[in-house]
Amino acid sequence: MKHSSGFLALILLLFFAVQALSGEADGVKRGEYIFRATGGCTCHTEEEVGAFLSGGRAIQTPFGTLYGTNITPDEETGIGDWGEPDFVRAMREGVSPRGAHYFPVFPYTSFTRIRHQDLLDLRAYLLTVAPVRKENRAHEVQPPFSWRPLLWGWKLLNFRPGEFEEDPARSAEWNRGAYLAQALGHCEECHTPRNLLGGLKKNMAYAGSRQGPEGEAVSNITPDVETGIGTWTVEDVVFLLKTGFKPSGDDVQGLMAEMIDNGFKHLSDDDLRAIAVYLRSLPPVRNEVPSREKEAGNISEGKASGMKSENGQD
C-alpha cells in the first residue's frame, strides 16, 4: 500500500510537470504571434548586418539619432535579467528597471494598451531568442532633448497610460482591429505627424508624416479619397499587409516593408481583415505626404495644385 501511494505521487508529479512545460510552450507560441503583430520589433535589428534583436539600428528623428536597444536575453547587455514586473513597467509606463524614462522613440505610448497576458507571452518569446552580448549605443540627441528628467514633463503632456478598452458599440471584428492597430501594431507612431515637442497630433491621426522613422515620409492611411486609402477595399489593405504590394502595383519600401516581412504577413487572415476594417472606419483626413525626393523636385507643382501641407495649412 505504501509503495502504491508513492507511485501515485510520482505519476501526479510528472503529470503536473508536463502540464507546466506545455503551458510554457503555449505561452512562447502565443508570444511569437504577439511579436509578429508588433511588426517583428524591426527597429531592434540592424538591417542586413546586425544579429537578430541585438539593437544598434539608427532611427533618425527631428531631435537627433537614436539607436534601437538590445532586447535579446543577454543578462548584461540585453533584457535577460529583467523580471516580469520590469518588462511590464517598461512597456506600460516607459520606465527602465533602473527608473529612467525612455525616449518616446520606443513606442510605449502605444504599447501601454497591450493586454497584460499578451505582454507576459511576448516576454516569454523574447527570452527564447539567442542571447547576444552587445552594448547599447548611446543616443545622439542634443540638449535639452537629451535630458531624460524632462521626459517626465513630456509624459504629462503626451502620454496616457492604460490598457486597451473595447468599444461596446462596435463589432468584435472592429475591436480586434483597433487593438491590433493601436496597441500591438502601434500604427499611429509612424503614420501620425508630430508637434514641435514630438507629441502626436491627434487631430491628424494616421494621416501620414513627412518625418517618419529613418527620415522617410510615411503615407496617409485614413480613408481620404484623394490623399489616403479611401479608394482601397478591405481586401486591398489585407493584400498589402500580406505581400507589401499596393492596389497600384507599387510595393512599399523601407521600414514598412520590413515590418510586413518580419511581422504582419505572418498574421491570420482574420486579424489582417480586422485591421483593415478598423483603418477603413477612421475619419478621413486630407493630407498629401509626398516623398522628400518628389517634394524637392515638385515644390512649385505642389503649390500650384493648392495641396494642403502636413499641418493642414495651404
List the topology elements.
Layout lengths: L1 H36 L20 E4 L2 E4 L16 H10 L14 H4 L4 H11 L13 E2 L9 H8 L13 H13 L2 H5 L42 H10 L10 H9 L6 H12 L11 H6 L1 H7 L9
Antiparallel strand pairs: 1-2, 2-3
Helix pairs in contact: 1-4, 2-4, 6-10, 8-10
Core attributes:
globular; three-stranded antiparallel sheet; 3 strands; 42% helix; mainly alpha; 314 residues; disordered C terminus
Task: Please characterize this protein's 3D structure.
The structure is a single chain. This protein is mostly helical and 314 residues long. It is built from 12 helices and 3 strands. It has a 3-stranded antiparallel beta sheet, with no helix packed on it. Strand 1 and strand 2 form a beta hairpin.
Strand ordering within the main sheet = 1-2-3
Strand content: under 5%
Q: Main sheet, how many strands, which sense, barrel? A: 3 strands, antiparallel
Instruction: Indicate the radius of gyration in whole angstroms.
Output: 22 Å
Find the structural class using helix and strand composition.
mainly alpha
Q: Determine the N-to-C terminus distance.
A: 90 Å
Would you report the number of β strands? 3
Summed up, the helix count is: 12
The shape is globular
Q: Provide mean pLDDT, rounded.
A: 88
What is the N-to-C order of secondary-structure elements (H for helix, E for strand)? HEEHHHEHHHHHHHH
Provide the low-confidence segments as ranges: 298-314
How much helix is in the residues? 40-55%
